[in-house]
Amino acid sequence: MLSVKQLEKRIAWISLAFVVVLLGLSALAINLFHVGLPTCLTDIKPFQKGELITHSPTHYELHYVARMWKFEPEDVTVPAGSTVDIYLSAADVTHGLIMLGTDLNLMAVPGVVNYARVKFDKPRVYQLLCHEFCGTGHDRMATELHVVDMASFAAKPSPPPAAEATHPGYKVLDANLCLACHSIDGQPGIGPTFKSMYGQTQKLRDGSTVTVNDAFIREKILNPNAKIVAGTFEQDMPKT
Ligand code: CUA
């Protein structure tokens, strides 16, 4: 019969052996099977612009920005045989990024940049999804990464730079995160779309009508529940 002291010693040795075996297996997996460990890079400043940076024909750096409810840049193309360093930043709330068919699984946390390296051997289309609930548009937050053979990649004309919205009003909407809930192209969101809204006559819950003009928009922002449009609910506007 073991004394309590001997039993404690035995448990301590077994635990130590377990930790050593675990570390050994991890080292083996990293060296033998090239399993990449996701890293949290706190020394890299979070970025707001998604882009694909070419270091060499087989080495790319991909900066993904996760924002409600898309990943930027969308539909990236790289050649087969390339190594891609993926950096992930969040523009608003916490999102996740998983690439089906690979080990890539990162969190997009505001204020932090996460990193993983992926090597793409064969041509294929990869689906990327957000796996962290991030609001009403979470289920459609997805994009694709295309891996094509080197010849068709070289033949592909480089895409024109994305047209930047330069309207000063758009910049205000973007800077204040209005576009997280309101679209400008008619897409439904948490809030009504801004498309064709200005000048419309809206029916209110109390039966009266109102014209969407500067005064009404201002009141809606400052005191959103003063006049409620028929068929909608009381809503708070985020104070940014
Ligand atoms: Cu982003 Cu869910």
Total strands: the figure is 13
Order of helices and strands: HEEEEEEEEEEEHHEEH
Structural class: alpha+beta
- In percent, how much strand structure appears in the residues? 25-35%
State the end-to-end CA separation. 68 Å
**Global mean pLDDT:** 85
- Which segments are poorly predicted (pLDDT under 50) over 5 or more consecutive residues? none
Largest sheet: 6 strands, mixed
**What's the tally of helices?**
4
Task: Give a description of the structure.
By secondary structure, this protein is α+β, with helices and mostly antiparallel strands. It has four helices and 13 strands. The chain has helices spanning 4-32, 150-155, 168-175, 214-222; strands spanning 39-41, 51-56, 59-67, 70-72, 76-79, 82-90, 95-99, 105-108, 113-120, 124-129, 142-148, 201-203, 209-211. The strands form three sheets. Strands 1, 2, 3, 4, 6 and 9 form a six-stranded mixed beta sheet that branches. Strands 5-11-10-7-8 form a five-stranded mixed beta sheet. The chain has a two-stranded antiparallel sheet with strand order 12-13. The radius of gyration is 25 Å and the shape is flat. The chain starts with a helix and ends in an 18-residue tail after the last helix. The relative contact order is 0.10. The mean pLDDT is 85. The structure holds dinuclear copper ion. Dinuclear copper ion is lined by residues 66, 69, 95, 130, 132-134, 138, 141.
